[in-house]
């Protein structure tokens, strides 16, 4: 466990930092001056030794404490980068646009309160209205671990910001310009953009179902003649909602879908009937057309898998869990919301796919590599920190990448199997990744590590 430090005020007129002589791991003995960072604020200080100070204390002159607006009631980690000191981590949570609403919301931050022991340093909840852009200050609430309450104060801009509200494009651009990748915000990529981005990676192309942007009703007929069976999916759909499966039969066409937890099927005796249906159903044109992948490994049951990925405190993608999903009989989707079941991935691989344990392990490793490669590809365009990767295996054991859910991949799917370890990792992922961005990577030994 990392050593934690208390900051104590020292009566010195000039900006200075005082350490116990045994804290040689913190600073080079020859170092006379350094710079201290707290969030986006910094100050140059003179370094001194003081035998009366405790080894778990860092003495700072009142000038430094006031300049950096350092709360003294919290514990801190300390990190050195390029010979300069970072005190923190200092993480901001942008909760709302209104200061009035913030006051009501702040006491409901139970999850962050529980996560504080993983953070230490300072967690500040603030609103857009609480930002003073001219002076680079924010008015917000920090969590006090002693009182276990959120207390109001004025602070510098934090080192990293987690967005927990909906911002206008202009406001989001402001934070992106100021923070770059240290502004963690929700990201939703529609299925067409995602396909285009994934397809730019040559290694992923063999694992992507052929996908086309729906433009006009005749597109359905065109691709039915090419593939005989196709899926039409909403660009921004979730939980399998709105997905329809079109099939070319010997003497007619039909469409299958789920509605009110029931399987539905409509038959069309002619192309015109089919086109009339398509015209009435897909007016918005916000859909993709996708070739069918034969995932009916068990008769009348579609099977696929969900892999949970997070970025860890080293800033690297990590595979933290996998579950299998089995669709209800006759359903074209496997989602829980549409009656599907969650089954342990290993069980499905061994039973439904008739694999040996070694074969199942080999397939699992291949799925992991494809999922990580896909997340890394999306990450080139936007900074994401977790992803629910839907991946499937056909009857020939070829692996298919269905889609990535980066906005808010559900952890509940792991709760069904009692996989509390994965649930905990998903809940805490944002905190550990924020620590990494704030200058406290796990692979780097923090100042004061045991």
UniProtKB/TrEMBL annotation:
It comes from the Bacteria. Pfam families: ATPgrasp_YheCD. This is ATP-grasp domain-containing protein. The gene is yheD_1.
């Amino acid at each position: 466990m990392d050593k934690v430090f208390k900051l104590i005020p020292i009566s010195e007129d000039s900006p200075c930092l005082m350490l116990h002589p045994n804290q040689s791991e913190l600073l080079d003995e020859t170092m006379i001056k350094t710079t201290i960072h707290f969030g986006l604020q910094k100050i140059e200080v003179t370094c001194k030794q003081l035998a009366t100070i405790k080894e778990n204390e860092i003495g700072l002159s009142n000038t430094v404490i006031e300049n950096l607006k350092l709360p003294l009631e919290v514990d801190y980690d300390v990190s050195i980068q390029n010979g300069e000191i970072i005190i923190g981590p200092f993480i901001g949570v942008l909760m709302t646009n209104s200061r009035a609403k913030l006051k009501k919301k702040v006491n409901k931050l139970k999850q962050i309160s529980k996560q504080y022991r993983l953070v230490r340093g300072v967690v500040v909840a603030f609103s857009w209205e609480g930002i003073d852009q001219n002076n680079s200050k924010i008015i917000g609430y920090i969590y006090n671990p002693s009182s276990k309450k959120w207390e109001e104060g004025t602070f510098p801009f934090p080192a990293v910001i987690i967005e927990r509200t909906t911002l206008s494009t202009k406001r989001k651009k402001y934070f992106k310009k100021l923070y770059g990748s240290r502004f963690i915000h929700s990201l939703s990529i529609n299925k067409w953009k995602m396909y285009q981005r994934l397809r730019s990676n040559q290694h992923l192309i063999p694992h992507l179902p052929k996908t086309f942007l729906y433009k006009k009703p005749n597109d359905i007929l065109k691709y039915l003649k090419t593939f005989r069976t196709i899926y039409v999916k909403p660009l921004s759909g979730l939980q399998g909602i709105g997905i329809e499966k079109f099939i070319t039969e010997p003497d007619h066409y039909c469409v299958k879908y789920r509605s009110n937890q029931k399987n539905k099927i409509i038959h069309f005796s002619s192309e015109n009937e089919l086109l009339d249906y398509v015209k009435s159903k897909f007016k918005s044109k916000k859909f993709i057309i996708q070739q069918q992948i034969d995932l009916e490994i068990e008769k009348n049951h579609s099977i696929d898998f969900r892999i949970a990925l997070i970025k860890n405190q080293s800033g690297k993608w990590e595979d933290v869990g996998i579950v299998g999903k089995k669709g209800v009989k006759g359903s074209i989707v496997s989602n829980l919301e549409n009656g599907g079941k969650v089954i342990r991935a290993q069980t499905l691989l061994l039973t439904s796919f008739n694999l040996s344990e070694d074969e199942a392990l080999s397939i699992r490793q291949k799925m992991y590599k494809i999922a990580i490669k896909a997340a890394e590809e999306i990450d080139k365009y936007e900074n994401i920190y977790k992803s629910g990767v839907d991946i499937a295996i056909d009857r020939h054991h070829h692996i298919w990448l269905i889609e990535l859910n980066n906005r808010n991949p559900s952890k509940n799917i792991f709760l069904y199997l009692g996989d509390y370890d994965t649930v905990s990792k998903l809940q805490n992922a944002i905190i550990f990744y924020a620590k990494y961005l704030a200058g406290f990577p796990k692979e780097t030994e923090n100042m004061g590590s045991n």
